[in-house]
Design a protein that fits this description.
Length: about 150
């Protein structure tokens, strides 16, 4: 009888842990914290007027404000993903605002909530590099109970 109770308890614990990690749907809170951007070169080189555009699975969800005249902008701006999957691609695209011409693309990087959770880094700061710079962000994952987010 004791073995039966132990097996039941172990099964219950295992099932609970499996269920917690099996949730593939949820919401992500994304905070774009800061960046380091490459210096401009050329005849009219100057400081950057930087901002970040945020996309989820190719859909634009927002952008940070423009921080003028710095190579190390700090935003600490929050974005909500809406309901997404753990495998959804979150892309950070770094831009230099040009007031007389089109904005200049400086680099981008992509991450999935699954990568963040796999690395046991939920709700902690991450740095992702691109050529000559980086973007620092925080991603917090809020799983849907029993994957009911997408049900109508």
């Amino acid at each position: 009888m004791a073995n039966l109770v132990l097996c039941f308890l172990l099964f219950n614990v295992c099932w609970t842990l499996t269920a917690a990690f099996a949730n593939t749907e949820g919401k992500a809170e994304i905070i774009v914290e800061q960046a380091h951007v490459p210096r401009e070169t050329g005849l009219f080189a100057g400081s950057r007027d930087s901002y970040v555009r945020v996309y989820v699975d190719g859909s634009y969800i927002g952008k940070t404000r423009v921080i003028d005249d710095t190579h190390t902008p700090v935003w600490n701006e929050r974005f909500d993903s809406g309901y997404i999957k753990k495998s959804s691609k979150i892309r950070f695209s770094l831009w230099d605002k040009d007031y007389l011409e089109s904005d200049d693309f400086m680099g981008s990087m992509t991450v999935t909530p699954q990568e963040v959770l796999r690395d046991n880094m939920n709700a902690t700061s991450h740095v992702r590099h691109f050529p000559h710079g980086f973007v620092q962000f925080k991603l917090t994952w809020f799983p849907c109970p029993n994957d009911v987010c997408f049900e109508k």
